[in-house]
Amino acid sequence: MNIQRYYAVDVVNGPGTRCTLFVSGCEHQCRGCYNQSTWRPDAGVPFTLAMEEQLIADLNDRRIPRQGLSLSGGDPLHPRNVPHIRRLVKRVRRECPDKDIWLWTGYQRAELNAAQRAVVAEIDVLIDGRFIEAEKDARLPWRGSRNQQIWYLRQPQGERAESDTAEHHAEECDAQRPRRESPVQHQQRGHADRG
Ligand code: SF4
């Protein structure tokens, strides 16, 4: 698997302070995508074992407490990335049990194959769907267009285990998290706003 960028400390892509990995490879070709250079799976640099070790160490670094890991791209559920991402999320579950895992994909949850669903089974939050320019809304938390949906898969305190509508989650996010001036937008992940 190749990656575009890794941020050891990130406060934009997901709640709290996080480690964020932007992988290479995306087959959705959304109109309005900020950086088509993320589309090729062989773009960027290989994600090495040394990088993986560093990511795990960063997540467990108590000097800068991280809430969790954000996986973005590109698309972490691109078929070529799935075996590597599955291995990574299983390792994070095992070695960083108090961290949450958020993952952004251009696929819709309903169309995921068995291998992709096996990744989703290991994460806490999935944001799914292609970026659709006509549905763009900069006010949405954690996503760029209204068609995209946030799935809270592992709620703390035994709360809801599945997702509702995107609108419902917008209210939930507003109520539960501090408002951010620059909520993540799928089409911007690792793209123009990163410079
Ligand atoms: S917006 Fe996201 S899903 Fe769409 S082409 Fe760009 S990287 Fe892929």
UniProtKB/TrEMBL annotation:
Top-level EC class as recorded in UniProt: oxidoreductase
Segments for region (Disordered): 155-195
One MF annotation (Gene Ontology) recorded for this entry: ribonucleoside-diphosphate reductase activity, thioredoxin disulfide as acceptor
Cofactor(s) named in the record: [4Fe-4S] cluster
Enzyme Commission number(s) from the entry: 1.97.1.-
Domain of life: Bacteria
Keywords: 4Fe-4S, Iron, Iron-sulfur, Metal-binding, Oxidoreductase, S-adenosyl-L-methionine
Reactions catalysed: glycyl-[protein] + reduced [flavodoxin] + S-adenosyl-L-methionine = glycin-2-yl radical-[protein] + semiquinone [flavodoxin] + 5'-deoxyadenosine + L-methionine + H(+)
Biased composition regions of type Basic and acidic residues, renumbered to the chain: 157-183
InterPro entries: Aldolase_TIM, NrdG, Organic_radical-activating, Radical_activat_CS, rSAM, rSAM_sf
NCBIfam families to which the protein is assigned, alphabetical: NrdG, PRK11121.1
Record-stated family: Belongs to the organic radical-activating enzymes family.
Function: Activation of anaerobic ribonucleoside-triphosphate reductase under anaerobic conditions by generation of an organic free radical, using S-adenosylmethionine and reduced flavodoxin as cosubstrates to produce 5'-deoxy-adenosine.
Protein name: Anaerobic ribonucleoside-triphosphate reductase-activating protein
Organism: Candidatus Pantoea soli
